[in-house]
Design a protein that fits this description.
101 residues; alpha+beta; elongated
């Protein structure tokens, strides 16, 4: 949009993006309200993210099945067979193999 429509007053190009920018952001912690798989990290070490800036592939991919409402759903959907447990270990209350009483 910036290259082809930089002077566009209506903002139509930006509004057509899957995740359009806003002039009134609701979060100052640089996160979004969905989780997506971290495909920039090797699968055995990867987890799920909800941080900004979003990778271009997330912005361009309008498939809602690749966006999850929670971190654990994202882990289950993308890293279910991950033997290392890297994704689950990133949860705030991560499960453990050595539970306490």
């Amino acid at each position: 949009c910036q290259g082809a429509y930089a002077g566009q007053v209506s903002g139509a190009c930006l509004a057509a993006l899957v995740i359009p920018p806003t002039s009134a952001p609701t979060s100052s912690d640089f996160t979004v309200d969905f989780w997506y798989p971290d495909e920039d990290t090797p699968w055995s070490e990867a987890g799920c993210k909800n941080t900004l800036p979003l990778p271009l592939r997330v912005i361009q991919n309008s498939d809602p099945s690749r966006r999850y409402s929670s971190q654990i759903l994202c882990c289950k959907g993308n890293y279910g067979g991950q033997f290392s447990g890297a994704c689950l270990s990133q949860l705030p209350n991560a499960p453990t193999l050595s539970p306490t009483d």
